[in-house]
Each structure stands twice: as structure tokens, then as C-alpha cells.
Amino acid sequence: MKSKYLALLVFVSVFFCRCASSASIEGMTVKDYKVEKQIGDKIFIKSVMGGKKTNPLWVSNISNENFKEALRKSILESNAFSEIDAITDGDWVLEVNLISVSRPIGFNLTVKTKIEYKLYNKNRLVFSKSISQSGNATMSDALSGTKRLRLANEISARNNIKELLQSLKEVSQ
């Protein structure tokens, strides 16, 4: 009887050591891209929609809060805008909708994110784009499948944000 409880305790301990965690803000933040020309001074980022909180007992997800913060940091880092506005009284407003995030299984994980961005200037839609990007994590990146999935989520989200930043040159003011 003791051995059954001991086995259960070991199983539960191992299981919880491999808990899933949400895609991190740092992992999703674009730090290696600068825009050619600043688009505007201040931008307000509306609440990000479509993301999911991570259940530690299941799989890694991209939360709305973490994605919004990574996007905020990426915009500032790229110099696309000089400030992130805390209220909506400015000219520039960005809406974000995480349409889909794939859930692969296996040893090499490739996550594909599809995210829709809408940028408004003075309540007029000036940019709308749905961006699909992928991110790959292999066994050499992490042995744990939960960590590989989190890394693939982060890379895919970061690639998506980077393509957004690159696409903003299409914005006509």
C-alpha cells in the first residue's frame, strides 16, 4: 500500500515539475528591428482579444495581457511610436485580435499564429492586416515538450509582431 502512495507521489511530483507556462513577454518582444520612419508620437493599444490564459496542467498559450505588453515593448523598441498612450484620447489606436494559434504535437514543434491588426488615425482606419507567422522549437531547444511549445509560441508571436512593425511602412498618414 505504501508503495502505491509513493508511486503516486513521485508521479504527481514529476507531473507538476513539467507544468505549462504562458508565452513570456520577454520571449515575444522584438528587440532587433528599428523602423525607417516614425509613424506617430503616441499610440493607444486597445485590449488584445483572442488570447488564452495557460492552464498549468495543460499546454502553453499566449495570453492577451502578455501579448499586449510584448507588443507595447516592441513598438517602443522599434521607434514606430515614441510613447504608448494610457488613454484613448490620442490620434492613433491599434486593435489586435489573435485569430488562431496552432497546437502541434511531436518532437519538433512549429506553432503558427494568425493575428489581425487594425490601426486607426483620428478614428479613420489607415491600416488593416491579418498576419500569419510561425515559430519552431526543437529537442535541442528544450527536452520538455511543455517548454518547447512555450518557446515555439514565443518565436511565432515575436515573428508576427516583427512583420507588423515591418508592414507599418505601408501606413499613409
From TrEMBL:
This is Lipoprotein. Residues 1-23 form the signal peptide. Keywords: Signal. It comes from the Bacteria.
